[in-house]
Amino acid sequence: RDAGVPLYATPINGTLRNMASMTSSAVMPASRVAGFAPRRTTNARVVRRGAVAQAARDGHVHKAAAAPPAPIAPKSAEAIADNLAAQTVKTGVMPLTFDVPAMYRATAESVQEQLMENWNATYRHFHDENPKQAYYISMEYLQGRALTNAVGNLGLTGEYSDALRTLGYTLEDTAGVERNMGLGNGGLGRLAACFLDSIATLDLPAWGYGLRYKYGLFKQAIEDGVQKEYADDWLEVGNPWEMKRETQYPIGFYGEVVDGKWVPGANIRAVAYDSPIPGYKTKNCISLRLWDAEVAPKEFDLASFNACNYDKSMRETNLASQLCAVLYPGDATREGKALRLSQQYMLCSASVQDILARFKERGNTDWSKLPEKVAIQMNDTHPTLAAPELMRILARFK
Q: Rounded CA gap, 89 and 97, in Å?
């Protein structure tokens, strides 16, 4: 079996059909979120599908449409240029110089405002409709550049190009300084990214889950004819596309069994960072949720630290920094194998906890109905711990 193909998927078209069959038809009715969604250019074609049209005919009104309207992001080149100028004061750059990287940051913030309208409306719509939703868990994603993908999917490439040109920049140069997200490196990651793009474009209710690697896999350089590998610095200047959430879940490691119950020996918190995944010429905008590892202040052993027992006091902190440091750490040693397994467990445990929390958030109380509302797609063998972790949580807590 090709390592780039999910566990029960065949060719990509068959897999997408499989994904569609796993979810219910509560798609985003385009006509029901006009207050949130971008206006289209006159030559833009909004993709219509049978399920979308049927949802509109059946009168599935998105409740968010009745809420107080949010400020509409600008859509004309002139208004976008004004918005870009306003964004420049938020980039943290001193006003004497404003180079292309700084303009990229301002442009990303502007596009993020455009996506927010659809992103929030999509989340609210699926919350209200409570469909069966697919959750895609993958150790890696090879996303590519978010800026050009976002403005293209929004149908605003021409407008942003014209707006930047009036300010003395070009869209090509501005997009060229974007640092690719260090979340994947090959076919498996690209497959996962394509799945999310396709899911969003097909108006399917789905989310993606992964880990927020600080240094990616590696950054390549050729020196004196020899390949050198360095840490990927993609987060060095921050990521304008992500939003840190208050959502976090406890993840336990090591420990022992006491009176038939597992007592972890180390505890960290998996903290959620969300990035929008916009569909192509549709108002559907799903989420890629990445988990970062942190240590809750109450878990920090201050007494040991003040007693100069730094190894003991920093145990959880060191573990957290290792878990999300690098994609695919070396596993030639027992320690490397243990770290890879710990990464996979963190991804699976946090994702499963989040999936079950969303099941409850949408008003579901009958756990026997979980298969009618949740489908979990595991990309390759890395997330297979999701199955036993789901059973552990349901057996102990639900």
A: 12
Number of C-beta neighbours around residue 78 at 10 A: 12
Residue 254 to residue 379: CA distance in whole angstroms: 26
| Matching residue, tokens 């999910």 | 6
Q: Which residues of the chain have pLDDT under 50?
A: 1-13, 28-71
For residues 267-303, b (16+ Cβ closer than 10 Å) or e, as one string?
Answer: bbbbbbbbbbbbbbbbbbbbbbbbbbbbbeeebebee
CB under 8 A, 24+ apart: contacts of 357-365: 358/133, 361/127, 362/127, 362/130, 363/130, 364/130
* pLDDT tens-place string over residues 212-255: 999 998 888 899 999 998 899 899 988 999 999 999 999 999 99
CB 29 within 8 A of CB 52: yes
- Which positions ≥6 away from 65 have C-beta within 8 Å? 32, 33, 34, 35, 36
Residue 175 near residue 104 (C-beta atoms within 8 A): yes
Q: Are 157 and 127 in contact (CB under 8 A)?
A: no
Residues 338, 373 contacting (CB under 8 angstroms): no
**Which residues neighbour 390 within 8 Å (Cβ) at sequence distance 6 or greater?**
352, 376
Cross-strand partners of 272 = 291
Residue 115, C-beta contacts closer than 8 angstroms, at least 6 positions apart:
150, 154, 276, 278, 285
Residue 331: Cβ within 10 Å count? 13
The residues, any chain, with a CB within 8 Å of residue 7's CB and separated by 6 or more, are 378, 380, 381, 384
pLDDT tens sequence across 150-205? 999 999 999 999 999 999 999 999 999 999 999 998 889 999 999 999 999 999 99
CB 122 within 8 A of CB 286: yes
* Rounded Cα–Cα distance for residues 234 and 214 (Å): 8
The string of DSSP letters for 226-261 reads EEEEE---TTTT--TT-EEEEEEEEEEES-EEETTE
**Residue among 193, 142, 138, 198 nearest 351 (CA):** 138
Determine the Cα–Cα distance for residues 203 and 107; give it in Å rounded to an integer: 26
Under 8 Å between Cβ of 70 and 36: yes
Q: Which two tokens stand for residue 372?
A: 């009618």
Q: Which of 164, 270, 259, 297 is nearest to 211 (CA)?
A: 270
Phi, psi of 138 (to 5 degrees): -145, 140
